[in-house]
């Protein structure tokens, strides 16, 4: 039975009308219950039980953890390759390129998850139009964003290291474009499949899609960047023309993607208005790249744990962001705040008990602690070929993790509700900011943790040698 459509109240100041509208609006046809509203039967969403949310988030969370461990191990290896040692721009680019999954792919996952929960993907024609439009949109954003990321890394490296070489810069741009567009295309195909399968089996795609984007994105992006950069670097002198061909192919494809998106009613508004969060997030992640560039080589093992703390933080906050955005879409109109929510809340209400999303925040915080313990021990054992972590490292790392995840979840509450009040769709705009803040805060807090461990005489490499 399809849910009845309820017109929103015309007077946005009428709080009783808003509360009535919020309580009557329903969306997910797989998760609905019936109530009597006067003489008319209405349908309202049934709230997920805590264990359902936990189980649905847990599996992709563990897969995401495996992905971030893989990314950390890969980074620990490739950071010593000649191309990364000699081309500092690549190190600076890593957080931003990896962060594109949050800027672009997680936004796609959030948009399609909301549409699926609203029941708008039942019509095959509309569903295919949404999918093709969103994939084309992400290709445009990935092409433009990768060029911006490359220019930022080149400019920062030139300013800090007083080093600029035109051939190397062309290589960096080509590697960034190839990595971003290829990774995003692969991820988008996987994500749309996951969302459709999740709805088919009556699961909430908000709980599943964004963590899977994080899990696949980190490892795929870093691996692809490492391989293509190494190949291009080895052929830099003899076959520089390869770089120009790569750049030319993607620039020629750009007008085709733009034409597809402009003809698509689902994605045309995002193409015109969705650039500010993407570009802003790139620069925030770029600051995290500067932290990474300063730490790699100075603190042994930093590059192994950095993808883990960044990836898991962005993974968990993206779940919360996607769920909050869906809840707002389910209960009211863009620009109208529901009766149960406001922009600013006390942290304990936003994160533990008070607002409807506090339950999920509690689950995510609780899940991050044992999850991070498992992830860092596995990453350490793979990197060092044995377990080397001591209590000081685990306690310090977990402290950084808890600070990061609680801060991100609280900021998510504020940002998403502020965007909603100002008529900005959080499905398109919130996740880029949040994952970029996750990259910057994760790298910064991890650096502070390594500095602290060194100050107390328990740096990671000495712990490893002692073991």
Helix content: over 70%
Total helical elements: 16
Structural class: mainly alpha
Overall pLDDT metric: 83
Provide the spatial order of strands within the biggest beta sheet.
1-2
Task: State the assembly state of the protein chains.
Answer: single chain
Our estimate of the beta-strand percent is under 5%
| DSSP, total strands | 2
Please give the radius of gyration in angstroms.
23 Å
Please trace the helix and strand order, writing H or E for each element. Answer: HEEHHHHHHHHHHHHHHH
Question: How many angstroms separate the termini?
Answer: 62 Å
Report the sheet with the most strands, covering strand number, pairing sense and barrel closure.
2 strands, antiparallel
| Low-confidence blocks of residues | 1-44
Shape: globular
Give a verbal description of the structure.
The protein is mainly α and 467 residues long. The protein has helices at residues 15-24, 50-78, 82-86, 88-117, 124-161, 166-200, 205-234, 241-262, 268-273, 275-295, 302-331, 347-351, 358-384, 391-421, 426-455, 460-466, and strands at residues 32-37, 40-45. The chain has a two-stranded antiparallel ribbon with strand order 1-2. Strand 1 (32-37) and strand 2 form a beta hairpin. Mean pLDDT is 83; it is low at 1-44.
How are the SSEs ordered, and which strands pair?
Elements: H1 15-24, E1 32-37, E2 40-45, H2 50-78, H3 82-86, H4 88-117, H5 124-161, H6 166-200, H7 205-234, H8 241-262, H9 268-273, H10 275-295, H11 302-331, H12 347-351, H13 358-384, H14 391-421, H15 426-455, H16 460-466
Antiparallel strand pairs: 1-2
Helix pairs in contact: 2-7, 2-11, 2-13, 4-5, 4-6, 4-7, 4-10, 4-11, 4-15, 5-6, 5-8, 5-10, 6-7, 6-8, 7-11, 10-15, 11-13, 11-14, 11-15, 13-14, 14-15
